[in-house]
Amino acid sequence: IRLVNGSSRCAGRVEVKFEDKWGSVCVYDFIWESEWAIVVCKYLGCGPVVWSSPYAMFGQGTGRIWLQPVLCQGNEKSLQHCSNFGWGRHFCDHDRDVGVICEDALELRLAGGGGPCAGRVELKLRGRWGSVGDDTWNMDDAEVVCQQLGCGSAKSAYTASTLFGKASNITNLARVECQGDETALWYCKILGWGPYYGIDGYDTSVVCQGFSRLVGSDSTCAGRLEVRQGQNWTRVCEEDMDMKAAQVVCQELGCGAVLAVPSAGWFEAGTEPFWKGGFECNGTELLLSACAHRLPRGKGCTGHASIVCSAYTGFRLANNSLSCAGRVEVELGGTWGSLCASDWDLPDAHVLCRHLGCGPAITVPPGGYFGGGDGLLWRDAFGCSGSERHPGQCPTVVLGQPACRPGHAAAVNCSGSSTSALQGLWCAGTEDNLAQCNISEMAAAPTGNPEEVVITCSGSRQVRLAGGPGRCAGRVEVYVNGTWGTICQDTWDLSDATVVCRQLGCGTALAAPALAPFRPGMRPLWPDAGGCAGTEASLWDC
């Protein structure tokens, strides 16, 4: 069996193959003949029957008519197992060639709404998208659409509206009557299967409530996760939530990257029942409802799932030929804007540069260094410590008056913006970046084949002596990953101390006391540090 002229293997005119030749199937429109369509869709693995017709709706065949099924039960393995008059024997003509649409041939979407859960209702039929036209479109119809698309319940229904733009001139469904509990729009009563052309003013559209939401905080991008189950909201067990599923939720809600899946105590517990099961996501789905559903991980819930997303959906550097230097721009609510430079500093820049894959920041140029941007500047002030992995993890506040002065846009030079294609560069050591070094003396550079220069930087790591009588005596403290900490003395010896003294420009080490005469320091306490031979230039080389 095959289906032809339907732009899909699951829709079209029914043809069967006999003696190595394809031919049509015809029937009269008697009630006892209608089960043939069930047999066809099941045989092809195309899901249930959506629509069938004995009136050559996919065109008339031109060859033999091989079968006229007289009586099908619907459970036959193939059409030839239905009662028939035999191969090539029939009492109907090509104007009764049967056609069928199985469920797998159809697609439904919402278009023009900027997301998957709001927009103009469109159906894909015979390979082409077209609108659903109806002058009596109501909330029952909209409910079926929203539930079918995994978007929760319907919030509003519109007809003859240009709220989401004008559709094409194709109408694939006309006059739909739903009860509200159908599993798909095509299982409602359909008075007209298209395509129809040139029917204007009847396009339908819906706005759905969405499948998931975050509640219990001041932000729509952080809170306790709740998902729709029918008409009601339910909580999700924290054991059934992971970072991939959380990323899908953040994307569905129009938020940025997932920052954390914190424990249940972060947000108010709520009283809603729990969703029975979890979600298997790969992280790229547009909706949480599109993820595979799975059974619960455990026997009960220890608490509800919570998610913290970044409110910022994008960060970029603009107005510079180098990808790792430029004016700082952020995306918020689908709109890009330049950031005000008033409270932009080096720790903020470090986090942004690393997030963009550009290494740590080198400098924060004055506001407007890479141009002032277009329009008003974002007044968000970041309070990064420098150790965050994403700018959205930094505390932020919206600056008050006075407004950011025009053109005072934040800028940054990341270390990744330095070029590696320079020869014979002469720097004094005080420049902010390599581009400021004196390249006019390149003619005096050594001749011959150049060799690559390799350097090792300490990055953001530092060492100091604290609690002593001066800068060359005291408790050893190191700054790693944005935090000062002390070193466990169990494996610390004079060779280690010699390296620290040399690194700090304090000469030779005189002692590395087993019992520190200086007051205790702060946490964390770094174990197993040291291991120096005594000849290294820096503690980080040990």
Automatic annotation (TrEMBL):
Residues 1-103, 108-209, 212-310, 315-415, 463-542 form the SRCR domain. Disulfide bonds join 41-102, 72-82, 178-188, 237-301, 281-291, 340-404, 353-414, 384-394, 532-542. InterPro entries: SRCR, SRCR-like_dom_sf. It is found in: Membrane. Keywords: Disulfide bond, Glycoprotein, Membrane, Receptor, Repeat, Signal, Transmembrane, Transmembrane helix. It is a single-pass membrane protein. PROSITE patterns: SRCR_1 (PS00420), SRCR_2 (PS50287). Interacts with LGALS1 and laminin. One of its GO terms (cellular component) is membrane. Pfam families: SRCR. Its main location: membrane. This is Soluble scavenger receptor cysteine-rich domain-containing protein SSC5D. Binds to extracellular matrix proteins. Binds to pathogen-associated molecular patterns (PAMPs) present on the cell walls of Gram-positive and Gram-negative bacteria and fungi, behaving as a pattern recognition receptor (PRR). Induces bacterial and fungal aggregation and subsequent inhibition of PAMP-induced cytokine release. Does not possess intrinsic bactericidal activity. May play a role in the innate defense and homeostasis of certain epithelial surfaces.
